[in-house]
Amino acid sequence: MTLPYEEYLAEILIDEETLQKRIRELGQQISKDYEGVDDLLLVCILRGGVVFLTDLMRQITVPHEIDFLAVSSYGKGVREASGRVRIDHDLMSEATGKHVLIIEDIIDSGYTLRFVMDVMMARRPASLKLCTLLDKPSRRTIHIPIDYVGFTIEDKFVFGYGLDLDDKYRNLPFVGVVRLDALPQH
Ligand code: PRP
After folding, report:
1. pLDDT confidence of 71, banded at 50, 70, 90?
2. For atom 16 of ligand 1, which residue has the closest CA?
3. Residue 159: beta bridge partners?
4. Model's pTM, two decimal places?
5. What is the pLDDT at residue 81?
6. pLDDT: is 77 or 109 the higher one?
7. If pLDDT is split at 50, 70 and 90, which confidence band does 78 have?
8. Of 34, 58, 70, 108, which residue is least crowded by CB atoms under 10 Å?
9. In the sheet that 158-159 helps form, which strands lie side by side, from edge to edge?
C-alpha cells in the first residue's frame, strides 16, 4: 500500500462536505440531548474513531472530557467465528458515574462494540450511549443498539476518514470504496 490513494479508489462514497454537514448535525443533536450534563465523557475507539472524534467534539457545545480505548480482535477471521476482542490500551480516566458516549468509525459484525459496551457498563457509568459514523447493518452478527448513526451504508469495503487500508490512508477527508482489483492479492 505505497501507491497514491487514487490507485485504490473505486469511488468516493461520502464526500468531505457531506461528512462535515452530517457531523455538524450529530454535534447539534448530542449537544441538545446532553444539555446541562456536567460529566460527559467521550470515549474514542482507536484507531479508526480518532478522525471522527476530533471533528465531532468541535461540534459539541456541552463541556466534556475525552479518552481513548484501543481494542483489537484475535484476528478478523477468528473474531467473526468467536467474537473474541481484547483491550490493548485502557482508558486513562474513571468512567464510573460519568455520562459516557462511545465514538466509533464503523460497526460491522457488532462484536467489537458489544465487547466495548459490556466492558464500559461494568464500570457503572451514569449512562452509556453509542455514536458511530458508519453503520453496515447487513453485516451484523450480534445485536447492538446504536444511539447516533452518521450514515447507514451497504456492504462495501470502505477506507478513508479514519478507516484504514492496510493501516494507511486514514487521513483522507472522505470515505471511499476500495478498488478490489487494485489490491495486491488480486
Ligand atoms: C474496525 C472498526 C471497529 C470494528 C468494527 O476496527 O473501527 O472497531 O472494526 O468491526 P465489528 O463490528 O465487526 O467488530 P479495526 O479492527 O479495523 O481496527 P482499527 O480501528 O484500529 O482500524
Report:
1. very high
2. 72
3. 176
4. 0.94
5. 52
6. 109
7. very low
8. 58
9. 9-14, 175-178, 158-159
The answer to whether the CB of 175 falls within 8 A of the CB of 13 is yes
Q: How far apart are CA 44 and CA 184, in angstroms?
A: 31
Annotated active-site residue in 33, 67, 90, 108? 108
- Rounded Cα distance, 11 and 17, in Å: 16
Q: Which atom of ligand 1 is nearest to the CA of 73?
A: 16
Name every protein residue with a CB atom under 6 angstroms from any ligand 1 atom: 45-48, 73, 104-113, 164
pLDDT at residue 83, rounded to an integer = 64
* Residue 80 amino acid letter: E
Give the count of beta carbons closer than 10 Å to the beta carbon of residue 132.
24
- pLDDT tens digits along 95-153: 999 999 999 999 999 999 999 999 999 999 999 999 999 999 999 999 999 999 999 99
Element (H, E) at 103: strand 99-107
Residue 46 near residue 69, CB atoms below 8 Å? yes
The atom of ligand 1 lying closest to the CA of 106 is 2
Q: Is 108 a catalytic residue?
A: yes
Q: What is the DSSP string of 33-52?
A: HTTT-S-EEEEEEETTTHHH
Which residue's CA is the nearest one to ligand 1's atom 22? 48
Joined together, the cell numbers standing for residue 6 give: 487514487
